[in-house]
Every structure is written in structure tokens, then in C-alpha cells.
Amino acid sequence: MLRPYRGHRTTRCGVSDRTRVGIVGAGPAGMLVAVLLQRAGIDCVVVERRDRSYVEQRVRGATVEYPVVELLRRHDLAAGLLATGAVEDRIEFRMGGRRYPLVYAPLAGGRTPYLYPQQFLVRDLIDAFLVAGGDLRFDTTALAVTDLEGDRPRIRLDSGAGAAPSELWCDIVVGADGEHGLTRAAIPRSASRTHEYQYDYAWLAVLAEAAPSSDSTVIAIHESGACVHVPRGPVVSRFYLQCPREDGRADWPDERIWKEIRIRLALDEPWLLHEGPILSTSSLRMRSLVCAPLRYGPLFLVGDAAHIVPPVVGKGFNIALADAEELALALVERFTGGTSARLDAYSDRRLARIWRAQEFVGRVMDLVNTPGPGTREAAYLHRVQCARLERLFASPAYGAAFLEDHIGWE
Ligand SMILES: Cc1cc2nc3c(=O)[nH]c(=O)nc-3n(C[C@H](O)[C@H](O)[C@H](O)COP(=O)(O)OP(=O)(O)OC[C@H]3O[C@@H](n4cnc5c(N)ncnc54)[C@H](O)[C@@H]3O)c2cc1C
């Protein structure tokens, strides 16, 4: 049961604070919830374990789907994106030395996505929240979320610098703490179910100081495994290489990374791969996960805290923002309109969308990754992949259905 609204503000009393909504995590999901609540006059506090510059510079996704562009416009949060983002008009597949450009405009009816790095949007949201006097505590780690069975949940906090742990008392806790956060784990097993699918390969994520070698995302389907190239601004490029799950950095010296990228992205026509110093690498476990329901009493999960998809067609960041808008509007309705109907429907409503995204991403994973490269089965499955890709371009109906899923449907 939610307690009735009493219009209080965050108060500090000794080592305990009190607020209406406590938000764990200042990623895109947590910050969008915070800004929308703040604008509706609902008291909230955001706690973030990292410092501000880390959060504002963390390079991740960049494709903002058209419905999310509209979402940001609706809330007057799209100024940065519209001023410096670029329209993304295509994605290019490569296979057998040939290009297969999937151009959005003819099929998308003007609903084209934008390229605007995730960290820029997070920076815009943080600016908006702080300029309006929001309470955002960096370098503050949530250690535990407790008392979820009652009507006074608490977040235990470590503010670092040797300070004693403190507590934030809330009416509602928003778990926006990402894939490895603690809020999902705070829900008892008997009250939720985590559905998980683990792919039997990994992706090596490579960030390089190298000019983009293409003006659109390139996804190569190759018998040795998938390779993806994503432009990340004028001097930085992201690459992903499908690799065995057990591989570590030592298996991938820089020369091997560039050699493999050259092989998998190769074209039968002249094409130049820009190489440069490798800034970072990480091995991404390829997994999909959905926690259901997205609510346990006064705790609500949004974004990667609730569901994960592999970063193959840029869904994660977009679904996280759509979750955040829905939850924020439901909370506003609850606290200012006094009705809980939308909040009660939050989990079911979002899960329908989340599963649709899971299905699409699973389909793309099967299209682009080669299970067990080097095996007899891989040679067979690679030919099936080729047939699927050919069909995508040969059949307008198949192409349009793919594109509808790809560019978003919120
Ligand atoms: C390498 C990589 C590339 C990606 N590429 C794409 C892409 O191209 N397109 C796309 O759509 N998606 C992509 N994603 C996924 C996308 O980044 C996520 O879906 C998105 O960040 C989810 O946002 P979020 O706010 O839910 O979580 P996050 O962005 O993970 O934010 C969670 C925040 O919570 C904080 N936090 C965690 N634990 C605590 C704690 N105990 N106390 C306080 N704070 C805490 C974290 O520091 C973090 O700031 C990529 C992900 C990775 C890792």
C-alpha cells in the first residue's frame, strides 16, 4: 500500500534523510525519472556510486529511436539531440564481400532514428536536474534496499570518504542501477522470476581512437563470426567481434583485433579501414534477461536493472528511456492525481514491450552471429544466415517488418 501524499520535501535529520522517491542510479533511466518527477513538483533524490565526469563520459549506445526522439521532444529535453545529433538514415550489412544497405527513409515514412551518444543525453538530463535544484548525490553507493514489505522502504548509503553509512527513507524506490545493480536482487526469489538466455559466445567490445570507416553502422556476417562497426564521433570508433566466451584480453593482442576486423569487414571493392590506438576492450557476455514483475511493493525497476539485451541493434538504451517515462508519469498520476491505476499497470504494460524487443534482438542475434565458428555446423548455419539476409532485401514485406521492429514502436 502506498502512503497518502503529504507534500513533504527531502529532510536531513542526523544520518537519515527522507524523500518521496529514492532513485538508485544516474544512468539514462534514473535521470529521466528524476527530471520528470522534479518538473511535476515531486520530491526525489538520486544516488549514484560514480562521480559526475565518469557518468557523463561513459561511452555506450548512440542510436536514439524515433519514438524516443518524440518522447524527448514531448518533455522539452531534445534540444541537445536536435542541435548536434545526426539523423541515422541506414544500417549496412556486409556478407561475402558485398554491401547490403538497409535505407530507412522509403520504408520508415520519416520516422528515422538519430545518432546522439548516450553519455551526451545523460549529461543533458543531469544538467536539467541540477540547474532546477535537484538533489543528485554522486560518489554515493546504495549498499542495500530494505523494508520493502512495509510502507517505509529505506536505502542504506555509503557516501565514501570514511563517512558512516546513512539512510534514505522513501515512499517509493526506483531501481535504475543497471545490469549489475542491487535492486533487482533485493526482490525475494519467491516474488519474482528472472528469465535468462545465455549465448554460447561473447563479443569483444573495442573502442579505438580511429576515425569512422563508414558513415553508418556496419554489421558483417562472416563464417568466422560477427563483426560490427559503429561510428562514435569524428575520432572514435566502436567495434564488436564475436569471439569464444572463454577468451580474455591476452587472446586478442591489438594486431589480432585489427587483422580480424579487416577480414570480417572486407569488401570486394576498394574500402579503407581507419585504424588507431585501442582505448579500451571488454568482453561482453551475450545474454538476454527479463525480471518479472518489474515491481515488488514500493520498489519499481527500470532499464537494465530489469532487463538486458545484447547491444546488437541498440534497443537497451531506448527501452530504458521508455520504461522511465512510463514509470515517471504513473508516479506523477499517483502523487498528484491520487490514483494508482497507471502505477499498478506499469509492470504488465512495460513487459509486453520488453518481450517484443527481446524477440527482435534474438532474431538479429541469430541472423548475425555464427554459433561455434569453424565447425561443420557453422558452415551450414552460415549459409542459412546468408539466405535470411538475401530474403531481407529480396522481399519488401519481410524488409518492412524487420524495419518496423528495428526503428521502434513505442
Ligand atoms: C559496451 C556497451 C555498449 C552498448 N551499446 C548500446 C547501443 O549501441 N545501443 C543501446 O540502445 N544500448 C547499448 N547498450 C546498453 C545501454 O547502454 C543500456 O541499456 C543503458 O545504459 C541502460 O540504462 P540504465 O539507466 O538502465 O542503466 P545504466 O546506464 O547502467 O545506469 C545505471 C547507473 O546506476 C549506477 N549504480 C549501479 N549500482 C549502484 C549502486 N549500488 N548505488 C548507486 N548507483 C549505482 C551505475 O554507476 C550507473 O550510473 C550498451 C551497453 C554496453 C555495456
Characterize the quaternary organization of these chains.
single chain
What average pLDDT do the residues reach? 91
CATH topology of the domain at 11-88 and 110-195 and 287-361: FAD/NAD(P)-binding domain
Strands, count: 22
Helical segment count: 11
What's the architecture of the domain at 11-88 and 110-195 and 287-361 in CATH terms?
A: 3-Layer(bba) Sandwich
Terminal residue distance:
30 Å
**Radius of gyration in whole Å, from Cα?**
22 Å
Beta-strand content estimate: 25-35%
- The outline comes out as globular
CATH homologous superfamily assignment of the domain at 11-88 and 110-195 and 287-361: FAD/NAD(P)-binding domain
- Which compounds are bound in this model? flavin-adenine dinucleotide
Largest beta sheet: strand ordering: 8-7-16-17-18-15-19-22
**Helix content percent band:** 25-40%
Walkthrough of the structure:
The chain is α/β, with parallel strands linked by helices. The chain has a domain at 11-88 and 110-195 and 287-361: 3-Layer(bba) Sandwich (FAD/NAD(P)-binding domain). It is built from eleven helices and 22 strands. The chain has helices at residues 28-39, 52-57, 66-74, 79-84, 105-108, 118-131, 254-265, 316-337, 341-368, 376-394, 396-407; strands at 11-13, 16-18, 21-24, 44-47, 63-64, 86-87, 90-95, 98-103, 114-115, 135-137, 141-146, 154-158, 166-169, 172-175, 193-208, 217-221, 227-231, 237-244, 278-292, 295-296, 299-301, 307-308. The strands form four sheets. An eight-stranded mixed β-sheet has the order 8-7-16-17-18-15-19-22. Strands 10-4-3-14-21-20 form a six-stranded mixed β-sheet, covered by helices on one side. The protein has a five-stranded mixed β-sheet with strand order 1-2-13-12-11, with no helix packed on it. A hairpin with a 5-residue loop joins β16 and β17. α1 (28-39) runs parallel beside α6. It starts with 10 loop residues before the first strand and ends with a helix. The model is unreliable at 1-7 (pLDDT under 50). It binds flavin-adenine dinucleotide. Flavin-adenine dinucleotide (FAD) is lined by residues 24-30, 47-50, 55, 60-63, 118, 141-142, 176-178, 181-182, 205, 303-305, 311, 314-318, 320. Residues 18-360 form the FAD-binding domain. The chain crosses the membrane at residues 21-42. This is p-hydroxybenzoate 3-monooxygenase. Pfam families: FAD_binding_3 (PF01494). One of its GO terms (molecular function) is FAD binding.
